[in-house]
Write a structure and sequence with these properties.
mainly alpha; two-stranded antiparallel sheet; 61% helix
Amino acid sequence: MNLEKPTDSHTPDPANPQFGSGANGYPSALPQYTQLSQNLPVTQSQISYNHITYALALFSYFTAGLTWIIPIVMNYLKRDEARNTWLYSHFDWQIKTFWYSIFFWVIGFVMVIFATGGLFFGAAVDSNHTMGGSFIVGALGGLIIVATVLWHLYRIVRGWIALSNGRAVP
């Protein structure tokens, strides 16, 4: 790989068109979607399939999360069929949204659980400091959960709008 800094940082590296320019014009290790790969044809059934996965992800808000895992399994099963198309970004987008949401929701939930235990412990030993600290940790955990839910919903809506317009998501 050529590590010399190109004169124009916005031009792709002709020696390696799969990778784009990174910070300060040096090649990036992250693959970029090329114009060629964005123009490969996709079938209407692939697009409809992705509409279904977005709908199931959104529907999970009304089923206490029972349908949350279904679209992720569906995305893993069909993602390779969309490789080298603009639709691949939607499969990847939903999978990343799922795993980041799980990660941050678990962090928030653990904080709330520990805070609840701290509140009960603080009440049992009559310690206002323990109760106050636990309340703060619980409130931060609750804020993380709320922010994660809103971020997840935003990603579903943004991705679904892009899919409806026939565009890739970043």
